[in-house]
Write a structure and sequence with these properties.
Layout lengths: L14 E3 L51 H9 L5 H15 L3 E7 L6 E6 L6 E6 L4 E5 L7 E3 L23 H7 L3 E3 L4 E3 L19 E7 L4 E6 L3 E6 L4 E6 L5 E6 L6 E6 L3 E6 L11 E4 L4 E6 L5 E6 L3 E6 L8 E4 L14 E2 L5 E5 L17 E5 L5 E5 L10 E4 L5 E6 L2 E7 L7
Antiparallel strand pairs: 1-2, 2-27, 3-4, 4-5, 5-6, 7-8, 9-10, 10-11, 11-12, 13-14, 14-15, 15-16, 17-18, 18-19, 19-20, 21-22, 22-23, 23-24, 25-26, 26-27
Pfam family, one: WD40
GO cellular component, one term: nucleus
Family: Belongs to the WD repeat DDB2/WDR76 family.
Length: about 425
């Protein structure tokens, strides 16, 4: 059943520090409330089935943490343990810790749904979230002061992409943020690039009724901004907003643009024309100059390179997550069936990578037409292993049970920010006294 559109009325800013409650239970603790399901076998060797929440709970059992991480590190230093084995042990330890993750802060600062979020690249407690009305909240979780709120233009001002300027250090005093932090506007504020402590400056004077940007990424090394618009154009600009080139690379809207973190001349673009294309920015001459074209069965919401740049994660608008290998672009991808269908009044669901481990995090939108769905299925945050496609863990809070569209771990990988409708949820490992 599609979610009902909420009336978009202004309401006062609300931020909640969550108290420890017995109601904040994990999906496994809620097992009696859900119906167990039968999972069908895989269709091929490279296709993975997430199944549903409660089938074969032992398959979701996270391996026990390493007996001693310190010992494992010591053995690695002595050459007795290979790095992949050590990395696997660290990942298992992190997965084990997810059982204690709870929502410890939440906020509802907008009068329209949240549409984008990003963590500061060097300050892991600083978060920016944008809304459909153009509002932006700058939230430093490490201080008790009220988050900074930047008012948008209202209807037609949707923030579809957010990035901090990595070249300019950020001041964390809220009054200075209000005075010094500006928003570089891309095509009449329909997509935002956030530089710290620089004056606002429009990138383009193109009428917003005809064109608007839908995606955004930035490279600190090359000092460029890349973005895609609603008609299939991809534009490369320098940090001052000067346009380097503007080419039509897709037949329809470019929903996502991402630069490879290890090779920033390597660009991936996703589109509703059901393709993801890989480009070399040094050789772009036109729409046919792509290196690879990766066809999909449905429009694509996102394409994210893994932190090491070796994999590409794509999310379509129905029920499929794909993982491509950078060494074998032409080989069939790993397929993870997962319900996250598109709905007009819902922020598109996008899967993302954990910054330190080969893990994928994505919100679940239960679909009655999904082959292994149940009417009692919960709207969880699912964590998959990026190598095997296996569902490793699910986060759930009974007091925040809406559809969670966006999830992103901070650079340290220990705090998760989620977007659920009008709400911002902050997940972290539960510690004694943390939520008191």
């Amino acid at each position: 059943m599609a979610p009902k559109k909420r009336p978009e009325t202004r309401k006062p800013f609300e931020m909640v520090l969550c108290a420890k409650s017995k109601k904040s239970r994990s999906p496994r603790e809620l097992e009696p409330e859900a119906k167990k399901l039968c999972v069908k076998g895989p269709g091929c060797s490279r296709r993975f089935d997430s199944g549903c929440l409660w089938e074969k709970l032992t398959s979701l059992q996270v391996p026990p943490p390493c007996g001693s991480i310190v010992r494992a590190l010591h053995h690695h230093k002595l050459g007795r343990t290979a790095w992949p084995s050590l990395q696997k042990g660290l990942q298992q330890s992190f997965l084990h810790s997810l059982a204690s993750y709870r929502i410890f802060q939440k906020a509802a600062p907008f009068d329209r749904r949240a549409t984008s979020l990003t963590w500061h690249p060097t300050h892991p407690s600083t978060l920016a979230v944008g809304s459909k009305g153009g509002d932006i909240i700058l939230w430093n979780l490490g201080i008790k002061d009220k988050p900074t709120f930047i008012k948008g233009i209202g209807a037609g001002g949707s923030i579809t992409g957010l990035k901090f300027n990595p070249l300019i250090p950020t001041s964390f005093s809220p009054p200075q943020w209000r005075e010094q932090l500006g928003c570089k506007t891309l095509k009449a504020t329909l997509s935002e690039f956030i530089p710290a402590m620089t004056p606002a400056k429009p990138y383009s004077k193109v009428s917003p009724s005809s064109f608007w940007f839908c995606s955004l990424d930035v490279s600190a090394k090359s000092r460029v901004v890349v973005t895609g618009d609603n008609v299939g154009n991809v534009i490369l600009l320098n940090m001052d907003g000067r346009e380097l080139w503007n080419l039509r690379m897709h037949k329809k809207k470019v929903t996502h643009a991402a630069l490879n973190p290890c090779c920033d001349w390597f660009l991936a673009t996703a589109s509703v024309d059901q393709t993801v294309k890989i480009w070399d920015l040094r050789q772009v001459k036109g729409k046919s100059s792509f290196l690879y074209s990766l066809p999909h069965s449905h429009p694509v919401n996102a394409a994210h390179f893994s932190p090491d740049g070796a994999q590409l994660l794509t999310t379509d608008q129905k029920s499929e997550i794909r993982v491509y290998s950078a060494s074998q672009w032409d080989s069939p991808p790993s397929l993870i069936p997962h319900p996250h269908r598109h709905f007009q009044h819902l922020t598109p669901i996008k899967a993302s990578w954990h910054p330190r481990y080969n893990l994928i995090v994505v919100g679940r939108y239960p679909d009655p037409n999904f082959k292994s769905c149940s009417p009692h299925e919960l709207r969880t945050i699912d964590v998959f292993d990026g190598s095997s496609g296996k569902l490793m863990h699910q986060l759930y809070d009974s007091e925040s049970s809406g559809i969670i569209s966006l999830n992103e771990f901070n650079p340290m990988g220990d705090t998760l920010a989620s977007v659920m409708g009008y709400h911002i949820l902050i997940w972290s490992q539960e510690k004694a006294g943390m939520c008191k």
